[in-house]
Amino acid sequence: MNEEPEILAFVKALSSADRLRIIGVLVRGKFTQGDIAEQLHLPVRDVFNHLAFLVHVGLINETDGVYELDEKAVENYARGQFEGKRPEYQDKPEDARKVLRGFLSPDGTLKQIPAPGNKRLIILNFIVDAFAFDTNYTEKEVNTILRRFHVDTAALRRYLVDDGFMDRESDGTRYWRVK
C-alpha cells in the first residue's frame, strides 16, 4: 500500500472542522480525550477517531491518555509546505525558466494565469508537480494545493484537466495526476 504524501496527510488533518477545533483546544494545553469531548460538546467516540488521526499524522502526541499539540511538527509542516520560498525551476529549459520568471512571484504564486498557449502549458506543467502520481485527491484537496499558486482554483483545476495534466471522475469527486 502506498503511503500518502505528507502534504496530503497534513491537508486531510486540517480539512475537518472538528479536528481544527480539537487543535484549538490543544493550543491551550494538555487534555484528555474526555476533557476535549466535554469542551467541544462532541461524542467521545468522534473525538477518539479525530485524535487517533492527528496522532497518526504526527500533529499531536499522546502520553498516558493525555494529548498535547506538537507545535514543532505543525510549524515544520507549515514551513515546509507553505513558506514563501523561491520556486525551483533551474532544471527547466531556458525558455521555460523565462516564462516561469515572468509569471511567478518570488514566493511561487502566479501573478496572473496566462492566456491559452505555450506559456500556460509551461505554467501548468510547473503547477502539476505539486501533485503526486498514484494518489487520488478530492476536489477540496486539489483546491487547497492550487490555492498555493492562485486564488482562482476552479480555473486552474479546469485547465489542468482540459490540457491533460490531470484527470477526474465525471462527477468531480476524484482527481489524479496523469503520467
Describe the overall structure:
β4 (166-168) and β5 (175-177) form a beta hairpin. This protein has helices at residues 6-14, 17-27, 33-40, 44-57, 71-82, 94-103, 118-128, 139-146, 153-162, and strands spanning 31-32, 60-63, 66-69, 166-168, 175-177. The strands form two sheets. It has a three-stranded antiparallel β-sheet. A two-stranded antiparallel sheet has the order 4-5. It folds into two domains: 6-79, Arc Repressor Mutant, subunit A, CATH 1.10.10; 86-177, no CATH class. The protein has 179 residues and is mostly helical.
How would you concisely characterize the structure shown here?
The protein has helices at about 5-15, 15-25, 35-40, 45-55, 70-80, 95-105, 120-130, 140-145, 155-160, and strands at about 30, 60-65, 65-70, 165-170, 175. With about 180 residues, it is mainly alpha-helical.
Q: Give the beta-strand count.
A: 5
Order of helices and strands: HHEHHEEHHHHHEE
How much strand content do the residues show? Answer: 5-15%
Low-confidence stretches: none
Oligomeric organization of the protein chains:
single chain
Number of domains: 2
Largest sheet: 3 strands, antiparallel
